[in-house]
Specification:
This protein is an alpha+beta fold. Helices cover about 25% and strands about 35% of the residues. The chain is built from six helices and twelve strands. It has helices at about 1-20, 30-35, 55-60, 65-70, 105, 190; strands at about 40-45, 45-50, 75-80, 85, 90-95, 110-115, 120-125, 130-140, 145-150, 155-160, 170-175, 180-185. Strand 1 (about 40-45) and strand 2 form a beta hairpin. The longest helix is centred in the N-terminal third of the chain and has 17 residues, at about 1-20.
């Protein structure tokens, strides 16, 4: 793995220094993100979105791209004010209009959305009053990937530094730390 990552970065450096354009076809998202200036996500033989890796992850154009890129879980949310969506863990403020079917000024309140929460959006915080039960954990060296069950039964995932070694069944404090709200209408037709 180290050799492959180092080789990918060396190839990127050579291409940049020589001003050479290249097309890399891969199914490895980490490799695509590390090497490419722009990435195309394909679905059914068509490009679903073409963007910088950062934008694919934080600003996916479609629900498919949001679900396909990285890891995350969609949780139900409700628009409670223009630009604000409420999820079980609290309110999220969006800097971009929420995809509730009309503009935020028209929508205001009540629209149902599916909000993508990624592992880096859920932060372990012993001081938080919000508790979640560890239902699964995967050791990844520097961190654990915890699957957590919220009081409603909804599950989320969280990356936690590996020195926080909690047992399955243990309840831990968590909080939201979301910079980019990714939400799509709660519409079964749109999700298909």
């Amino acid at each position: 793995v180290d050799l492959r990552e180092r080789l990918s970065l060396e190839v990127r450096d050579i291409l940049k220094r020589t001003g050479t354009t290249a097309v890399l076809v891969t199914h490895d998202q980490n490799e695509a993100f590390a090497v490419a200036d722009a990435v195309g996500v394909m679905r059914g033989g068509r490009i679903e979105q073409w963007a910088a890796p950062y934008d694919l992850y934080h600003r996916p154009a479609t629900r498919f791209v949001a679900d396909f890129i990285g890891q995350g879980i969609f949780v139900p949310g409700t628009v409670v004010a223009p630009g604000t969506v409420e999820v079980e863990l609290g309110d999220l403020e969006s800097r971009v209009p929420l995809a509730c079917g009309s503009s935020c000024e028209q929508c205001g309140k009540g629209c149902r959305l599916d909000v993508l929460l990624r592992p880096d959006d859920i932060v372990h915080d012993d001081a938080s009053p919000i508790r979640a039960e560890v239902t699964a954990k995967a050791f990844r060296g520097a961190e654990f990937m915890y699957t957590l069950k919220l009081p409603s039964g909804q599950q989320v995932i969280s990356l936690v530094p590996s020195h926080h070694d909690h047992a399955v069944g243990e309840k831990i404090g968590i909080r939201l730390d979301v910079d980019h709200v990714v939400a799509f209408r709660n519409d079964p037709v749109a999700a298909a």
